[in-house]
Amino acid sequence: MNYSTVWQKACTQITQVIPRHCLFCLEKTHNHLELCNPCIAALSLNKDCCHRCASPLETSLKQSISLCGNCLSHNYYYDRVYSPLLYAEEMRYLIKKLKYQKKIHYASLLSQLFIQKSHHLKNFYLPQAILPVPMHTKRLRQRGFNQALELGRFFASHYQLPLNYSHLIRIRHTNLQAGMNAKERQKNVQQAFSLKHALPYEHVALIDDVMTTGSTVNEAAKVLKQNGVKQVDVWIIARAGLKI
Asked: For the chain, what is the total number of helices (H) and then of strands (E)?
């Protein structure tokens, strides 16, 4: 039994022993999660979005086009973004608690929300392996964990896929992307990634928590494509609106 399986089993046993109350409405839950079914049902789905980058489309455009303006005018290294939820108030609360208040167990909840809500995603095909977006060692020491890796553990366990977190590495420490516009984000992550060893996969999924402009995952996908990976999907828990 590998580490991911043991870790997943331990988390499951905890949820079966400790009575849970919904984080939002405080009612008892009956699903071994920290959100009740009505609150889960009320989460904002990312249904009307670009078919490639999953950016939310304006209501007036969603019936007439399938790609956003950026995907029509730019070529990206990733092939497809899957993000079933919007980065609305509830998801923002959960993700910020995970990242900045060390609520690492929220990774289980967020990954299970992705799995539950992914039924409406079109052409959702499983990759050969899961690759969390890597964190630079300096940032890792500051935060203490990589949220993308914690999410990836649950995806790998649920879908029975290899979890590879050692080949793709972050070689340059970058500033936090929050508050930057699209051009600043793109410049910030240029040449930030490298591939330590060749990957024995043609189709992989990059895992991260939130996507705004996609600069980070595109730079990571660039390195993968330049080293023999043919298809790079991106799995994102929640999609934020594009900042130009």
From this structure: 9, 7
